Amino acid sequence: MDYRKLYRYTDFVKKWIENTENGRIYANFHQIGAETGRFSCSDPNVQQVPRMSRLRQLFRASDGYVFADCDWAGVELRIMAQLSKDPKMREVFTREKDLHIITAAALSNKPEEAITKDSSERQLAKAVNFGLIYGMGPDRFRLYAKTSFDVNLSKAEAEKAKKVFFNLYREIKTYHRTIAEWPSETYCLPEGERQMVAVRCASGRVRLFKPGVDYFTNAVNPPRSGNRCRYAEGSTNAPAPGDRL
Questions:
Q1: What distance in Å separates the CA atoms of residue 205 and residue 57, rounded to the nearest whole number?
Q2: Is 199 in the same domain as 107?
Q3: Is residue 1 in some structural domain?
Q4: Residue 135: pLDDT above 70?
């Protein structure tokens, strides 16, 4: 796992260097580049820079300028709370509390006030919250926690975290099960009639999947990511006052 992590970091740096001109990286941004409808970036990918501080320190603003880092607070988790209608998760957001601290307290069996913003417990909770809404299995979740949040977990620890998460946010498990059991239908595709499962996001965007073992982890993503894309594009392309959508 450590080798895969270091290889991934090395690959990032190589691609940055290959696409550098006059000390600047010129990447390509695609408004609906991903199959889920999300933004994507390529040649090189600077949208998903690893959280490793030594890598992020490679980026510098020009003299007299600063980088501005803007983000929606837990947008994917908020969308999952709405999709799953999980009462606990919705309550946390309605009361404007920190979901990662709530999860961290449950994982560590500590009171919420004992969890700080920069604590290792909260960092673990971020990996758990963002990883398990995707329906990741233990092995994939462990790799995700390591590469994305620098959190090391044994298989037993990953299994325990998963159990705590779904006990705390029970309706997310129900939502996952609903997608996993979604019935297939017959679709007329260019290659002929096929049995496919159709998954839709709130805006009506559809993705078709072949029923099978790998169906669930792919199908659980479009409703959440598609909705996020819809909100992102709506905000960045917001009409001026008086215009109509």
A1: 38
A2: no
A3: no
A4: yes
**In this prediction, what percent of the chain has a pLDDT beyond 90?**
33
Domain count, the chain: 3
16 and 48 together in one domain: yes
Across the chain, mean pLDDT equals: 81
Q: What is the pLDDT confidence band of residue 3, given thresholds at 50, 70 and 90?
A: low
Give the list of residues 6+ apart from residue 237 with CB closer than 8 angstroms, or none: none
User: Which range marks the domain in which residue 31 is found?
Assistant: 7-56
* Residue pLDDT, tens place only, 54-89: 788 888 888 899 988 777 778 889 989 988 999 999
Dihedral Cα 77, 81, 83, 87, nearest 10 deg? 170
- Classify residue 67: in a domain, yes or no: no
Report residue 47 as tokens. Answer: 């949208």
Token output for 92: 């946390």
Cβ neighbors of 100 (< 8 A, separation 6 or more) are 122, 125, 126, 129
Higher pLDDT residue, 202 or 147? 147
CB-based contact 226:35 (threshold 8 Å): no
Close Cβ partners of 144 (under 8 Å, ≥ 6 residues apart) = 127, 131, 136
Contact at 8 Å (CB) between 132 and 166?
A: yes
Contacts of 147 (CB under 8 A, 6+ apart): 4, 5, 8, 50
Q: 146: buried, middle or exposed (CB in 10 Å: 19+, 13-18, 0-12)?
A: middle
- Tell whether 111 and 164 lie within a shared domain: yes
Could you tell me if 172 and 81 lie in one domain? yes
Is it the case that residue 126 has pLDDT exceeding 70?
yes
For residue 235, tell me if it sits in a domain: no
User: Which H, E and C letters describe 47-76, residue by residue?
Assistant: CCCCCCHHHHCCCCCCCCCCCCCCCCCCHH
